[in-house]
Write a structure and sequence with these properties.
The protein has 350 residues and is mainly β. It contains two helices and 27 strands. A hairpin with a 6-residue loop joins strand 18 and strand 19 (275-277).
């Protein structure tokens, strides 16, 4: 009885050992995974801007995050979109820069129907290489988030480009918007083990700096008279004119202040080509919209962590701001990293 059981026991042990080794070798081949695009916005189910309805677009630059496939990854396995108030067909696109100005090779596409007010995630298998960029195409679906950062830039195509073709985007990129799309990318390389501990006496590793954060921007009073003469800022209030600007920073930074004039407009075009233009007798029946026109000049303040403030006289680039509505934009920068711009409205009374 013992002699009959021994060969069977040895065979079972060998098979179990082989299975264990196979599982171990398979486990070490797990691919690394990363997310690109508007990851945080989509995870929080943030809806896109209503004005971003329709278009054929690729994200060509971003203030934060990346819409490009990073090194070490070779496959897109899923893409996501947080739908706004409009449902309909939505096409995920992958573009490969050719090296020529604003020119791309259309690598692949995947079309799905999206439901309004829903976060969607669609599985795909698209081979890619580092540097390939993701984009979206739609006729009616809202496509982008308004960020108010000039570093966020979207390139638009005049027509929906087909996979396998080479197309250039129209004109200069459209600023202050980022596409409402993210993608999961994987790579063939195994997950790297943690780095070994540094030897005694070795210098500590330098952490990657974070972009500064500006908060609690205030303009008080929000309606004031501009000074007739003098500088753009003061350390003390000027009687009868100007306002106090206050804000907080999480770390020391240089803060650049710019001004945009608020003007009425009329919406021209539909879908991707829609723009807010100056009113005229030809477009007086078009949908009303608001234009934000940059005012020449800027103010840069070196600021400390915590509370900061100064008095703004209502003058910029040596000129008095005209009577009307404006908004102030504050953008912090430290160690070549720019934080998110914050804006506040104000009005010049006279």
């Amino acid at each position: 009885m013992y002699r009959l059981a021994t060969p069977n026991l040895r065979r079972a042990t060998s098979l179990a050992l082989f299975a264990t080794l196979l599982a171990a070798s398979t486990g070490t081949a797990r691919a690394a995974t990363a997310e690109i695009g508007a990851v945080a916005e989509i995870r929080s189910a943030m809806p896109p801007a209503p004005i971003s309805e329709g278009g054929y677009a690729v994200q060509v630059a971003g203030a934060s995050g990346s819409y490009a496939v990073p090194p070490g990854y070779n496959t897109i396995t899923a893409w996501s979109h947080s739908a706004g108030s409009t449902a309909g067909p939505l096409t995920f696109k992958v573009y490969r820069p050719t090296g020529a100005l604003r020119e791309f090779f259309v690598l692949a596409s995947d079309t799905r129907n999206v439901t309004a007010g829903t976060v969607h995630r669609f599985p795909v298998q698209i081979p890619v290489q580092p540097g390939d960029r993701i984009g979206l195409s739609a006729e009616t679906v809202q496509l982008a988030y308004e960020t108010f950062s000039p570093l966020d830039k979207i390139g638009f195509f005049g027509a929906d480009p087909l996979p396998g073709t080479i197309r250039a985007t129209d004109g200069e990129p459209f600023e202050e918007y980022k596409l409402d799309v993210s993608a999961t990318v994987t790579g063939p390389d195994p997950v790297a083990p943690p780095p070994p501990a540094p030897p005694p006496g070795a210098p500590a590793a330098v952490s990657t700096p974070a972009a500064p954060t500006l908060s609690r921007l205030r303009v008080a009073p929000s309606a004031f008279r501009a000074a007739r003469r003098g500088p753009s800022t003061r350390t003390v209030s000027a009687r009868g004119s100007g306002t106090r600007v206050s804000y907080r920073l999480d770390s020391a930074a240089a803060v650049r202040f710019t001004v945009q004039r608020v003007r009425p407009g009329r919406r021209r075009g539909v879908g991707r080509s829609a723009r807010c233009v100056a009113p005229s007798r030809f477009n007086r029946k078009a949908t009303r919209c608001t234009r934000y026109l940059p005012v020449k000049g800027s103010i840069t303040r070196r600021s400390r962590a915590g509370a900061n403030g100064f008095y703004f006289t209502g003058r910029l680039a040596g000129r008095k701001l005209a009577r009307g509505s404006y908004r102030l934009l504050a953008t912090p920068t430290a160690q070549r990293l720019s934080g998110r711009s914050v804006r506040r409205s104000f009005r010049i009374t006279r």
